[in-house]
Amino acid sequence: MSVVLPKSTLYQILFALAIGVLYVQSYELTFSVWVLITLVTLKTKYSKDIFQYLLCFIAIFSIATVVLFFHNDYKAYFVIRDITYVIKPILGILIGYQLCEYNFKKAFQTIIFVGVLISIYHLCVLGTAVVFYHVTKVNGLREWGGYFSDYEVYVLILLLFHKKFELGFSKNKLLIFTVIVGFSSFMYLSRTNFIQFVILFLAMKGYFKINKTSITVVSSIIAFTLIGYSTILYINPKRNGPGLEALLYKIKIAPTEPFKTKIDADDWKDFNDNYRSYENIHTVKQVTRKGTPTMLFGEGFGSRIDLKREVWLGDMFLRYISILHNGFMTVFLKSGLLGIAIYLYSIYLLFVRKKSKILQVSNLNLLLLGTGIFLIFSNWVFLGVYNLLDNKSILIGFFICYQEVANKKNKSENLVHE
Predict the structure, then answer these.
(1) How many CA atoms lie within 13 A of 92 on its CB side?
(2) Gap between the Cα atoms of 396 and 56, Å rounded
(3) Taking residues 171-178, what's their average pLDDT?
(4) Helix count (H) and strand count (E) of the chain?
(5) Which residue, 31, 155, 211, 410, has most beta carbons within 10 Å?
(6) Facing residues of 311 across strands?
(7) What is the rounded average pLDDT for all residues in the chain?
């Protein structure tokens, strides 16, 4: 007796696979799975809206490809590696968009169930580290459990604003899911995720629309942040300190870490604390030194930055790197200022979504607005949608498709009533 899965269930499994494979932390596996899911779910027609958004990333890819033909000295390994990195957000957007249509009725529930499973897995890993390996320091916990999880923050936001998305869960289930996902999200102890949560929360509350209330709220948060940061400076936490001291130290150096313009490479503390800035400095110097055409169009796929010294990155010492921590700088290296302008335009498209009277659609507009604002920060410190572990591209494609399907259904229902 054969078992036939409903098409919606199959697409839910594919969605869970697309998100879950990222947590294996094998880029080769992730890329392979994403390519396969993209091809399996490929549609024959796409909307103008999603095509316009995809076109931004296709344009960045095309510029880097054209520039590559002017360089015959690049190593094939780095060319292929760059291509997979730059094509990743295209795959993610397509996956989210293609999987949503068949998951429309249980779209948000699918996102949440996958998030809950990931959170449970994360907490089990942390529990194993603490109980069996006596890991208690922040750095150790993050090494075991992972350094961030944007996806779980999105799930937490959906749960907190469950009425706006009409999730339909019982009070007990909502409470259990919120506690699990909330605790797991917190235990990544990621500054980036904390900022992401605040931005998405404010966006969902409508505080990025300029009015008296939003100005008051945002001003209060800024004041609270400054007071909190001043307190941390007064406490003066030390690097690799016990408990939360290591996290406080990371917060202390956060304002300067990606923005410093002068770094003493011979001072190991200054170098390590501000390594992201070190990459940015050498990228700007290298690209601008090669003249106006390179500044405008970049150095193409296969280009690398000379760090002038060997640096321990991941699991090996490297002097030449092709992908940086900074998403904007990576795009600048591959496709120049033109690439950055296009990338910024892709973020702008998330700000100017069409208004709608449909509850979920209008609230997804707020969520996409918050996503766009967060991407500006995320690109500066974590590669944005080009990050190896990024899943925001899937969610963006998913949300855009949900809006389109909801609008179509609403329009057809209105025609029937007329």
Answers:
(1) 26
(2) 14
(3) 96
(4) 18, 2
(5) 155
(6) 318
(7) 89
Residue 102 gets which letter from DSSP?
G
Separation of alpha carbons 102 and 111, rounded Å: 13
- pTM, full prediction: 0.91
Q: Tell me if 85 sits within 8 A of 304, measured CB to CB.
A: no
Q: Which two tokens stand for residue 133?
A: 């390996």
Q: Which amino acid makes up residue 331?
A: V
Give the pLDDT band (50/70/90) at residue 393.
Answer: very high
Distance between CA atoms of 129 and 145, rounded to whole angstroms? 9
**pLDDT tens per residue, range 300-315:** 999 999 988 888 776 7
Which of left, alpha, beta for 356 (phi over 0: left; psi -120 to 50: alpha)? beta
Q: What is the pLDDT of residues 341-381, one digit of tens each?
A: 999 999 999 999 998 889 999 999 999 999 999 999 899 88
Is residue 50 within 8 Å of residue 93, measured between CB atoms? yes
Cβ-proximal residues to 390 (8 Å cutoff; 6+ apart), any chain? 22, 88, 89, 92, 150, 383, 384
Q: Which of 55, 382, 385 is nearest to 193 (CA)?
A: 382
- Is residue 58 classed exposed, middle or buried when 0-12, 13-18 and 19+ CB atoms within 10 A define those classes? middle
